[in-house]
């Protein structure tokens, strides 16, 4: 299954990151969920929730 997320780290511009690809230093995109992503940093996984929006401007399939 292919998955990707649009992320911004440390004030940098947004970019598309594929599942398993690097995000910043020593971190990678481990999972993409409907309302969050999971980031793996040296074996420690942390869920990062998407900011709430009034109107949906993205889709998940």
**H/E order of the elements?**
EEEEE
Report the helical percentage: under 10%
Tally of DSSP β-strands: 5
So what's the overall shape? globular
Strand content: 35-45%
- Note poorly predicted spans: none
Please tell me how large the radius of gyration is. Answer: 12 Å
Structurally, the number of domains stands at 1
Strand order of the largest sheet: 3-4-5
Number of helices: 0
Structural class: mainly beta
Mean pLDDT: 88
- Measured between the Cα atoms of the first and last residue, the distance is 11 Å
Major beta-sheet overview: 3 strands, antiparallel
Protein name: General secretion pathway protein GspC
Descriptive account of the structure:
This is General secretion pathway protein GspC. It comes from Burkholderia territorii. The chain has one domain (about 5-50). The termini are close together. Helices cover about 0% and strands about 45% of the residues. It has a three-stranded antiparallel β-sheet with strand order 3-4-5, with no helix packed on it. Strands 1-2 form a two-stranded antiparallel ribbon. With about 60 residues, it is an all-beta fold. The radius of gyration is 12 Å and the shape is globular.
